[in-house]
Amino acid sequence: MEELIETSEYILKEERIKDPDSDLTAYNGLFESTTGMCSIYEFMYSFRDKEDDPFPDLLSDNAIRALETIKKMKERISSGSCVGGSNVGINQSSSIELQKAAAEIIKFMTSKETQKEYILSSNVASGIMGLYDEDDVCDVLDCKLVKSIQFVNRPTHVNTDYDSYSALFRDHVFEYLYGNKTASQVLHEINDYTKIYKITLNTENTSLDLWFISLFGLMLILSSGFLEFGDLTKMKCQFKWIMVSFGITLNLIPILYKMIVKFPEQNKYSLWVHHNKYKFLCIFILIEFFIMGISFIKPYDIVLMNRLDENNLNFMKCIVNGGFGKFIQVLFILNKVIIFLIFLLLIFIEWNIKETQYDIRALTGAIYLDILDIIFLLIKQSLNYDNYIVEFLLNEIIIIIFVLSNYSLIYGYRVVLYFIIKDNEEDILKGSINKLNDNNSKKFASNPDMETNSGDISKKGSIINISKKIINYHYMKNAQSNSTIMTESAIKSNKFESTTNSENKV
Q1: Could you tell me which of 2, 6, 124 has the C-alpha nearest to residue 68?
Q2: How many Å apart are CA 396 and CA 225, to the nearest integer?
Q3: Rounded Cα distance, 185 and 172, in Å
Q4: How far does Cα 34 stand from its chain's mean position?
Q5: Which string of DSSP letters, residue by residue, matches 389-444?
Q6: Which of 295, 135, 138, 301 is nearest to 234 (CA)?
Q7: To which H or E segment does residue 288 belong?
Q8: Which of 506, 496, 494, 427 is nearest to 162 (CA)?
Q9: Contact 66/43 with Cβ under 8 angstroms?
Q10: In angstroms, how far is CA 147 from the centroid of its own chain?
């Protein structure tokens, strides 16, 4: 493509030296017409890694580079070809004799002999590739060139209403070529119109290691209740608090990882987290180990709660050991507060992303319940109880609520969601396509307060600019990251019946 740009620039330069008023256009993709679909698709097809590769995925780096090159050409040198064609059919309501006669005509028109005659007499190319192995045909046409051409079909298989889809496709591309959106952003928006989202247990796109870590954290929290049984010891007190704290971290950090990776705009931090998954997890685990380690310097104490009245019984209780023990609790609280604040910020930022909207809302409920549960645990620990059964039940109830709420809101709700939306998949897609007809005249309209363009937002670091950027992220409906969020892995996007692998070549 660089060679095409350089050659075109050279031709334009030389033409303008000869004729300063020359209106020669080196490249005209006719983007605003239906031919623009051919130009865009041809460019994307040209950006495959290998000659035999299928049409690149819309979310791939290849497609992004293709759009970026189109914009570069528009700015520096601003034709393409795509297979369209006509349909020939036989009226099934006609008589058998007429149908047979029509079939004979079609056979004649498409026969090798007729096609060859048209090539030799009119220099018209044929779709029968075997003809370009014959010497007399090659005397008329450049057979080597014709056989090297790789055609690409219009994506008529993507939607039954191809005209609307084509207009929608071009409208979104224009928002990149002539507007403020990025190539990645518009391709994500286009890709949404080719998908049907549904709930599935398929693990094809799931980070199983992260699921196991998160669920193991919940099991660790739930298992801490077993340390309440039997004789109370200092080690039981210590490990109960460790299991709860470590379990919370293991449960939430994998989800935090996926939320950072799914940040609405790619940046060096989300990319680092994406490429260093285990390092990211280890940072939080090492912090937990550090807090655990220093907590053993002065572990919990066991005190006897003497009840010298007939209505209560004596029992043993864990208490925090002096000022150092309280300092450890402050570290624990501070660690969890930071994690929850990061969660709440990311939830606000990613609130309107369409592909994860159900997950974000469910996660919000889980985070708020987690905060309340931890507050209740701290309050319970600071209170004095006269009855060991009450203390035991309160502790177990808080832990069980924590585990059940997290499991239900982060994982279990998908079962309910599946039955809610499974009958509406096609209607959702049709509604998205039909919105184009209402908004077709607004393709270049934009709200400056809601458009996100990293180049337009000052990077001075002021509070006003940071707040504006966060608000802009909040209103974005598509993430530009190429990564897959954990919650998205439960929403598997199924392509339509036709695949791009076999239908992009003629």
Answers
A1: 2
A2: 6
A3: 9
A4: 29
A5: HHHHHHHHHHHHHHHHHHHIIIIIHHHHHHHHHTTSHHHHHHHHHHHHHHHGGGTT
A6: 301
A7: helix 277-295
A8: 496
A9: yes
A10: 38
DSSP state of 478: S
Beta pairing class for 301-305 and 315-319: antiparallel
DSSP for 454-491, written as a single string: TTTS--S--HHHHHHHHHHHHH--S---SS--HHHHTE
**In the chain, what are the domain boundaries?**
2-83+153-175, 96-148, 201-421
> In this predicted model, what pLDDT tens digit does every residue of 335-393 receive, in sequence order?
888 888 988 888 888 888 777 777 888 888 888 888 888 888 778 777 776 667 777 78
Topology of domain 201-421, CATH: Rhopdopsin 7-helix transmembrane proteins (1.20.1070)
Question: CA-to-CA distance for 388 and 421, rounded, in angstroms?
Answer: 47
Per-residue model confidence as pLDDT tens digits over 139-181 = 888 888 877 777 777 777 776 777 777 788 888 888 887 777 8
Q: What is the DSSP letter of 55?
A: P
Beta strand pairing status for 196-199 and 491-494? Answer: antiparallel
Please tell me the distance from the alpha carbon of residue 196 to that of residue 137, in angstroms, as a whole number.
47
Taking Cα atoms as reference points, which of 370, 360, 359 lies closest to residue 406? 370
**Closest by Cα among 210, 290, 222 to 250:** 210
Q: Integer distance in angstroms from the first to the last C-alpha of the chain? A: 23
Both tokens of 222, joined, read 């739930």
